[in-house]
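Hi D.,

Good news: the full-assembly prediction came through. Inputs first.
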Amino acid sequence: MTLADLKPGQSGKILKVNVTGALKRRLMDMGIIGGTEVRVEKVAPLGDPIEVSIKSYALSLRVGEAKSIEVEAE
Amino acid sequence: MANNKETNSSSRNNMIIAVAGNPNSGKSTLINSIAGAKLSVGNWPGVTVEKNFAEFEFRGQHITLVDLPGTYSLSPYTQEEVITRNYLVHEKPDVIINVVDATNLERNLYFTIQLLELGIPLVIALNMSDETAQKGFFIDIEKMSSTLGCAVIPTVATKAEGVERLMEKAVEFAAGGVDHPYGSIFYGEDIEKAVAVILDEIKNKNNIEFPRWLALKLLEGDQLVAGEFGISTDAPFLAKATRHLKEAHSDDLETLMADARYSLAAGLTREVLKKPAKRKREMTQKIDAVVLNRFLGIPIFLIAMWFMFKLTFDISGPFSDWLDGVVSGPLTRWTNELLIAISAPDWIISLITKGVIAGVGAVFVFLPPIFAIMFFITFLEGSGYMARAAFVMDRMMHAIGLHGKSFIPLLMGFGCNVPAVYATRMLENQRDKILTALLIPLMSCGARLPVYVLFSAAFFSAYAGTVLWSLYILGIVLAVLMGLLFKNTLFRGEAPVFIMELPPYRMPTAKNLIIHTWEKGKHYLIKAGTWILAISVFVWFALNLPWGVESKKDSYLGRAGQVIAPVFEPLGFGTWEAASSLLTGVIAKEIVVSTMGEVYVPGADEEKEETPSIGEDIRQIVFSFGDAFVNAANNIFSTFGIATISVEEDEGTIGLKSVLVKNYTPLSAYAFMVFVLLYFPCFIVLIAMRHEFGTWKWAGVTIAYQTVLAWIVAFVIYQGGRLLGL
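Then the structure:
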């Protein structure tokens, strides 16, 4: 499953980031790294983007990017 | 670092301190409390990223303080990160102050660790230490300092606490060469072995100031850095050095390095940070529960924007009017009389009063809204709401290829396109900035209203309001269509991502607000002001030469109007009068009305006013400045009441209207209004684009696409209307 499948309030552990290049590096720099805990906090009023908490801060990203982040629900 | 000290012998006289840190770490507040009013705002060469710097004396030491763009990493992928690392590597500052948000230690330390790879002396400003105390966090500063091999000074930038000690430590580090060993960041045996092999290979190369940093970048496969040193990322020695790493871990060494850095940051955070077991629900989460609510999020955003819009233009309006009044009234009169007194020729008087002084007026009129808009944007950014606005609006704006934040400059465009173009600097990405700026002129600004008012009152008096609204909506619809068009043509394939931190809400400090607002306004005055003056003088020549012609028809403007008039024939207004009026719209769209007054009703404008004495003038200037304050204050209050677009009629245009009715049909009048809505923006908008983007290219694109668009839409409306028998 991917980060986009988690509902608000659900947490998961990141398994893999299925993108390459600049986007991957950007996600990694923001803390989206295998083994990291992530929790979906909110979905924007129009359904996209989403807000997650990771490494004790709040990050927003689009559903499109969230779909490329494999997670394991907890 | 020893080589740095030797090569940089001037460092005794001038010490360079670079300030680096994550966005939202309080970096700019900290810089303001260090440098205060000495801060200057500029741009990094060739890019739209803002550069803040200051020069000052600290205890007898001359210091240049450079604010590096806020970044999360030193990757080769974003403008900000490339600027930051190029500056550090090429300019070799004597010391780095790394601002670390103590409430968000792990992600901030990830960046610190990358800075330490360079081996430049580093002092950490552990900022927002008051907030950590409030949260019940305990940070072991001693341990942090000894583990990282750098100084750690707790600061509270908003209260200027710790700033003095921070500067002392930075100067001490820079001067004393308190070098921390390269090995202070240890990435584990496998990585370090590979680094050692690479180091061995590159040690004979010249001009390598930061060998360990270079080795790590080569290991990561950083093409940009490798290329700079003439090394191929496919070089055999690199393959050899990394073979074991790739076999034992993964092929993707960039990921491996990010992992290694984050595990170090995580490990260090675990060791030095003690958090209370139970976390209470924080204020930010409480506010976000409302502000980002499914149903309330968008209404709250729209209300916030409505207030921002009203306050920006209502507060700045009276001051713009006052500046305009002073420049076009007393200042022009005094200069006029002075020039007459020294018996200057007529054309000189006209050039100076109508060219130069009118240009000065044009520069100043835009200053109040630019100040106002920069104030509110700095406030939105500093408070943390800007990121929420982007979060709420991104879905809608993304559909037309824009960023969530683009909504704000576009909205401001309805007041005035000039500050709106400046407002695009709040977007991070160059593509977003440019695309937003290209669409701003389709937002019908306040200066176009007088044209609509004149024509709708003359031709559509019964339903003038509907006609007005139709124009605004037409502009928005075309902006959406043009956004889609640009997204799929000029800007195809480089859609930037939306990966954005939602920082905690914080109260921006007054000092921060004032300094930023002031600096941006000053920057506009100096950079754009010169251009505006020059073009204003040029326009004077076009309007008034050849000198002494009786009829406007024989001036260069009138002649140009005659030449291009046939172009407007299919649109229903192919007369030299209409064409010349449109040409003068480049000065400001409302000028179209006054030009029409001159070309359609010659001589109507020539009533002599009584000339007040200088004493009266000065009294008037002072009183009207007071009035401006009163009006601005009144406007603030009336903002909270109900306001509508007021369709006030100018008394001077009654004669003009009766002439217009003879020259236009309702259909051609509407086509004319649509043309005025869409054709190229005033030159000040073009200068603002040049100023923001460092090239005339985008101003040129704007002129071209808008003029074509205006012609096509006006053509469709006029010819379509005729087919329908209108």
